[in-house]
Write a structure and sequence with these properties.
With about 180 residues, the chain is mainly alpha-helical. It has helices at about 1-30, 45-50, 60-75, 80-100, 105, 115, 120-140, 150-175.
């Protein structure tokens, strides 16, 4: 029994590491150069934190958030904007987990996804956290209230494109739940 639990834990760690690498690489090498009309900046690396299991310890969520943001910052030539914004999401994510998930789901190893939550629950979960991430990121990046409406437009447009990309990736890359008969 213990060897099966250890094997599953090792598999989860390896899969988590692969997710980290693949999502970071996609963000760095594909999406970082993409700025559609100056307003749409897709930041799919947030997905890594959003899909962590619901029972992920808070300290681990914060560390992983910082590491993902820092990785994107290093390869983007940024000075900590991604790390700060994603660490903030890692900090508030447990609150959103408690809002969108039942107590039973929080205690299990549930990974937030369309298959596990339904689109009507998953969409507000990711959209709200993506919006908050983008709000923090663009506010830090601009740090100027004279461009408030332009910044707000970038936040909304980037939230829309990032949320759509996460939905598409979730739909195509997260295994569907097996229906029990």
């Amino acid at each position: 029994m213990n060897s099966q639990k250890t094997l599953k834990m090792n598999k989860d760690i390896i899969l988590g590491f692969l997710h980290f690498i693949l999502i970071a690489a996609f963000q760095i090498f594909v999406l970082n150069g993409l700025n559609i009309f100056g307003y749409f900046n897709p930041m799919i690396y947030i997905w890594f934190i959003l899909m962590l299991p619901t029972n992920t310890p808070k300290w681990l969520g914060l560390i992983l958030s910082f590491l993902m943001g820092f990785t994107v910052d290093i390869f983007s030539g940024q000075v900590g904007f991604h790390a700060a914004a994603l660490t903030f999401i890692g900090l508030i994510r447990p609150l959103f987990i408690s809002i969108f998930f039942s107590g039973k789901d929080i205690q299990t190893n549930l990974r937030p996804s369309i298959a596990e939550m339904s689109l009507m629950t998953f969409l507000p979960y990711i959209a709200s956290l993506v919006f908050l991430h983008h709000f923090v990121y663009f506010t830090i990046e601009i740090f100027n209230f004279s461009e408030f409406f332009l910044t707000l437009l970038r936040i909304v447009c980037s939230t829309i494109i990032t949320t759509l990309l996460i939905l598409i990736c979730d739909f195509f890359f997260i295994p569907k739940r097996k229906l029990s008969h």
